[in-house]
Recover the amino acids of this structure.
């Protein structure tokens, strides 16, 4: 569907240049531009941009980015990191770049490709469980494209930092592969856009944790496609927002094969005049029976200026499934505070403690804890 | 704290023990098309699907300023109302059909629809003047148009409330029963057209005050061409002495039905209103675009129940009603209370979101819904609770059942505005799937701009489990019966909210609608 | 003439052979106890007899009053006079116990060509039963097994048995997880039910219940076959010695 009403917005803020795709010259830029032309451009104040200004994101994408060619640090022998031209990588890059994120509902990954300053791939062949290769994706305020491939039966751990850039990650986990992905999102004054698409094949697993604090505007689009039987997806995270920061996380888990399970669990604390937007979606295709999928999002507002917009969605076409979702929004439980105060803990500290406990439920990593400003709990356990 | 409307006494149990109510009262109201045993039920088809052979006066198809003027002229409406309609028409012409709902249908040709149909002749002044063919129609449908008939059934259970009926046939109201009795209590219950003549003050004050004429595409269309519907005014401090109900019947071919209902509950009053609807089986789709506005002032309570059984089309999806309805209530006064209860089993497509604007402090909004879709039916239904006043509370319980090739979506919005101090919402939203070709969706929007507001939303999707089915069969209950029993159990929380007569009707409707769903 | 006859029953579940040649003959008036360690196939046996899906009968014969059960649907087996008290009774939210029971009883009556009981009559019967079993009548108004305690669920199974009055009642660990009072209620229900025309098969782990309901025969099921049968004293032996000695007896 192409409505005339949508076009002017994009045209006003995003200019087609007909330049070749710098990071992936084998791609046909004209064709990509054509695809963009033919795609319904995002509309302001309509799903999935109901609460976040798509205009600001597009404007940012159309402005000049920092140049960078910094490649991630990594350890482990079975892992390969290099730009798309690297010999061992180029065939994978040609096969998957712009294929995994090629989603007709979201035009932003295509726009990213036209502007990307930097592109590289991370490939794991390592199947030794005791020495998981670990890769650090550094923060950058550039426009980047990243491809991650976890080969059959291989392992990988990724620690990603985002900071005000425009980053599109395409990720493929081949049968039996395992990926643990932590994403840390510290404070930034920029408009930040992240798109992450993960294709999960049979019997593989993807675990993701995302910890976020304030940004002028931060948007995370996450799409996880379960394409193989018996796959497991576990996504969790939390946010603590203050000032006038704005965080929007749009997460979709698409079950397209039978017998898979997914969990989504997010806790958020929103204060001052901050806004938190969360859209969690579970989609179960007709050919995906025996699916078990659950989603939960809990929010606590700590000030009257705070705003919380959450929508847990279910879209189900198969009957032999167990699905549930829940969402809450509220304030600190006065009963709990009272209880702590009767034990001699001052009011302020009581509130802090309860908020920490609320966030600790979704934190399993030291750095995640520290970005949210809490004491890690599970990490210290022997 | 979740706000749960849990009541320990189950409805069924109640009806078994008070089997007088179960056996007698159910028969009094809308029950001629009810089957009484499981066997009858299994074989039962859409029995309300007959056509009444009656001379009808119909406007030629098409929508224009002239058509709107003609409708207004037929009803001898005052100038301001004609202008109001024309303004709506002009706004509608500039609007686009909404596309966000999870339903699919071919484009509607609004110029191919006739916007007015009525039985020929003047409006009958008493029952004796009503065309016998019409009387037979309502008899067949089980709607009591004779007041004494209703009274006769009451002897055995004197405490049972009576039901006053407004019967709307195509575009006009045929008759309204118990008007005199109600008048004694100061309650106005009449057709909308009549109210325009008798209570223009109220109409002028409240029409469009809850659903503005430009609210949405279908509401604008209705505002331009609305035909008839019911009007209720309950004065200060009056508890309406009986259930009020409107029975809508579409009969004419190629016509749309655009009724308009307005209910005003003045300070401290109470009214329970029921609505039922049926239509003949026809191969063409017919449009039904109604608008319902409810206004509850200080301490007033309105309970609005619907059992919607428009013709759903056949098993291949041919024919059926497009039910595109805007229903909204406003809790204008402090401590006012509006509850919507709906049982939706009919219509080819349902697009309907009965909502409450919680403006008054301490006001309460409730939405209880069962939506069942089978064969090729599509439903996109839910509610909007807008919390504006302090300490406002809302409860949403929605049960969706999808069978066959149908699609069933819950769409809801809970909005806590900055002024809604201590507002609360609890939402429970469950879907049950029967068969592997159907679909169930949940789209709940939650928007909170208030720290101390609490919103809780829970949803589940399951299917009738093999273990449940096996246990029933081990006890000798056949699979088809077992499924309908399990489905009824799944909906029990909602049936508790319905007035008794409707609860019985509704639970039977579910069985009929599920026919053939277990394969 | 035997009431229930299980001959050389081989059953596969999820492609695994669980029962390999079970034989059992139950005559009118008898009480049989089937004992055996966890996982030995006791529930598999009862579920197969009741016709649960997924229990594939490879070979063997199942007869109730000479009727071949294998040809019957679960509800037809119920009409033939078979009752299974489930080890894990299922919850049916929102469907009241009363509604469930009346539907079941009416279905049975219809099958026999009787008219349905009037609600008044039915409730009268139920009230009498409920009092007999020391139930709180509130119980009937609640959803089937919905938020029932373990003990309540088991008592509910006994109530259903008395209500449907079967020829053969298979009770799968109906005594598990009961306190002493509840155990006595269950025992009372079974003794109330039994007569010279019907029969009871008790699946149990413990001697406990057998003190209150004395079996005529005790069978030990091990690894999918009955390895030993005896009278009530066998249960006492098992209580003292466990199952290991039997395992050695039959081991290859
Ligand atoms: N549905 C099933 N799927 C797979 N294995 C099953 C199933 N039901 C039972 N089994 C297996 O069959 C064996 C016997 O189980 P069961 O009959 O429940 O034993 P008991 O009742 O004696 O404890 C066990 O090993 C159990 O794991
Ligand atoms: Mg067992």
């Amino acid at each position: 569907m192409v409505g005339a009403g949508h076009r002017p917005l994009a045209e006003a803020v995003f200019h087609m240049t007909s330049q070749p795709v710098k990071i992936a010259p084998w791609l046909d830029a004209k064709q990509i531009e054509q695809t963009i032309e033919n795609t319904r451009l995002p509309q302001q104040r309509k799903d999935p941009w109901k609460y976040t200004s798509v205009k600001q994101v597009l404007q940012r994408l159309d402005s000049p980015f920092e140049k960078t060619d910094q490649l991630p640090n990594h350890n482990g022998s079975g892992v390969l990191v290099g730009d798309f031209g690297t010999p061992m990588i180029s065939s994978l890059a040609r096969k998957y770049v712009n294929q995994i994120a090629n989603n007709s509902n979201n035009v932003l990954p295509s726009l990213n490709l036209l502007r990307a300053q930097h592109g590289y791939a991370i490939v794991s062949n390592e199947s030794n469980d005791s020495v998981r290769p670990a890769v650090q994706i550094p923060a950058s305020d550039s426009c980047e494209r990243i491809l991650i491939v976890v080969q059959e039966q291989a392992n990988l751990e990724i620690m990603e930092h985002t900071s005000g850039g425009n980053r599109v990650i395409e990720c493929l986990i081949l049968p039996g592969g395992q990926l643990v992905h932590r994403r840390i999102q510290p404070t930034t004054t920029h408009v930040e856009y992240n798109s992450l698409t993960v294709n999960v094949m049979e019997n593989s697993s993807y675990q993701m944790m995302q910890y976020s604090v304030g940004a002028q505007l931060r948007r995370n689009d996450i799409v996880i496609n379960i394409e193989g039987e018996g796959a497991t997806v576990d996504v969790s995270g939390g946010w603590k927002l203050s000032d006038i920061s704005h965080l929007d996380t749009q997460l979709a888990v698409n079950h397209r094969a039978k017998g898979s399970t997914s969990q989504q669990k997010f806790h958020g604390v929103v204060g001052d005049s901050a806004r938190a937007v969360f859209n969690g979606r579970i989609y179960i295709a007709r050919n995906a029976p025996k699916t078990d999928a659950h989603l939960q999002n809990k929010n606590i507002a700590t000030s009257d200026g705070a705003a919380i917009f959450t929508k847990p969605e279910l879209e189900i076409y198969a009957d032999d499934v167990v699905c549930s979702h829940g969402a809450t929004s509220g304030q600190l439980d006065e009963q709990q505070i009272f209880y702590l105060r009767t034990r001699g803990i001052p009011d302020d500290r009581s509130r802090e403690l309860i908020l920490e406990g609320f966030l600790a439920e979704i934190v399993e990593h030291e750095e995640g804890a520290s970005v949210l400003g809490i004491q890690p709990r599970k990490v210290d356990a022997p | 704290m979740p706000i749960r409307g849990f009541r320990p006494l189950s409805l069924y149990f109640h009806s078994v023990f008070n089997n007088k109510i179960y056996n007698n009262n159910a028969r009094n109201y809308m029950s001629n098309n009810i089957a009484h045993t499981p066997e009858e039920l299994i074989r039962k088809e859409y029995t309300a699907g007959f056509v009444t052979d009656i001379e009808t006066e119909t406007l030629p198809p098409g929508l224009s300023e002239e058509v709107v003027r003609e409708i207004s002229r037929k009803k001898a409406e005052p100038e301001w109302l004609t202008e109001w309609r024309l303004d709506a028409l002009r706004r509608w012409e500039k609007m686009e059909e909404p596309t966000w709902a999870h339903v699919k249908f071919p484009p509607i040709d609004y110029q191919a629809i006739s916007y007015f149909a009525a039985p020929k002749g003047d409006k009958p002044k008493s029952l004796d003047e009503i065309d016998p063919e019409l009387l037979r129609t309502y008899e067949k449908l089980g709607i009591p148009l004779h007041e004494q008939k209703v009274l006769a059934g009451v002897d055995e259970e004197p405490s049972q409330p009576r039901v006053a009926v407004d019967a709307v046939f195509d575009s006009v109201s045929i008759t309204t029963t118990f008007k005199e009795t109600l008048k004694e209590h100061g309650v106005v219950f009449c057709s909308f057209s009549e109210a325009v003549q008798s209570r223009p003050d109220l109409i002028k004050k409240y029409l469009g005050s809850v659903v503005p004429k430009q609210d949405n595409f279908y509401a604008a269309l209705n505002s331009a061409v609305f035909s008839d519907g019911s009007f209720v005014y309950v004065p200060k401090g009056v508890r309406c002495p009986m259930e009020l109900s409107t029975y809508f019947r579409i009969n004419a071919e190629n016509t749309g039905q655009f009724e308009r209902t307005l209910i005003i509950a003045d300070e401290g009053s109470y009214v329970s209103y029921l609505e039922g609807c049926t239509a003949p089986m026809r191969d063409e789709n017919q449009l039904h675009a109604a608008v319902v506005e409810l206004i509850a002032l200080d301490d007033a309570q309105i309970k609005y129940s619907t059992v919607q059984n428009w013709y759903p089309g056949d098993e291949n999806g041919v024919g059926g009603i497009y039910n595109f309805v805007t229903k909204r209530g406003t809790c204008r006064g402090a401590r006012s209370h509006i509850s919507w209860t709906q049982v939706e089993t009919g219509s080819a497509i349902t697009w309907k979101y009965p909502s409450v604007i919680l403006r008054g402090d301490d006001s309460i909004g409730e939405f209880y819904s069962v939506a069942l879709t089978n064969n090729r039916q599509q439903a996109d239904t839910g509610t909007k609770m807008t919390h504006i006043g302090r300490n406002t509370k809302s409860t949403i319980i929605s049960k969706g059942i999808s069978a066959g090739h149908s699609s069933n979506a819950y769409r809801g919005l809970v909005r806590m505005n900055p002024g809604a101090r201590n507002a609360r919402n609890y939402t429970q939203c469950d879907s049950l799937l029967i068969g592997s070709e159907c679909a169930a969706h949940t789209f709940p929007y939650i928007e909170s701009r208030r720290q101390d507001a609490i919103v809780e939303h829970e949803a589940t999707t399951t299917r009738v489990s093999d273990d449940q089915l096996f246990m029933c069969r081990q006890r000798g209950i056949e699979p088809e019966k077992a499924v309908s029993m399990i489905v009824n159990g799944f909906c029990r929380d909602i049936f508790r909210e319905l007035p008794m007569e409707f609860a019985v009707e509704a639970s039977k409707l579910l069985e009929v609608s599920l026919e053939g769903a277990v394969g | 003439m035997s009431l229930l006859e299980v001959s050389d029953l081989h059953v596969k579940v999820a492609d695994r052979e669980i029962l390999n040649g079970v034989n059992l003959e139950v005559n009118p008036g008898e009480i049989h106890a089937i004992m055996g360690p966890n996982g030995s196939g006791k529930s598999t046996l009862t579920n197969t007899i009741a016709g649960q899906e997924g229990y594939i009968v490879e070979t063997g014969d199942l007869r109730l009053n000479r009727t071949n059960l294998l040809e019957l649907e679960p509800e037809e087996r119920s009409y033939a006079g078979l009752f299974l008290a489930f080890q894990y009774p299922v919850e049916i939210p929102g469907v009241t116990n009363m509604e469930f029971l009346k539907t079941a009883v009416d279905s049975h009556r219809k099958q026999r060509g009787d008219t349905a009981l009037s609600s008044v009559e039915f409730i009268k019967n139920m009230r009498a039963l409920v009092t007999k079993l020391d139930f709180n009548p509130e119980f009937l108004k609640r959803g089937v097994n919905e938020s029932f305690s373990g003990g309540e669920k088991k008592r509910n199974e006994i109530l259903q048995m008395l209500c449907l009055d079967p020829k053969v009642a298979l009770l799968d660990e109906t005594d598990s997880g009961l306190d002493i009072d509840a155990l006595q209620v269950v025992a009372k229900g079974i003794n109330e039910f039994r007569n010279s025309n019907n029969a009871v098969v008790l699946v149990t782990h413990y001697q406990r219940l057998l003190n209150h309901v004395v079996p005529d025969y005790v069978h030990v099921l091990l690894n999918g076959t009955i390895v030993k049968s005896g009278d009530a004293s066998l249960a006492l032996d098992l209580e003292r010695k466990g199952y290991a000695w039997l395992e050695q007896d039959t081991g290859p």
Notes: The CA atoms of residues 219 and 321 of chain A lie 31 Å apart. Residues C 13-14, 18, 36, 38-44, 54 surround adenosine-5'-diphosphate (ligand 1) (CB under 6 Å). Chain A touches chain B through 35 residues (CB under 8 Å).
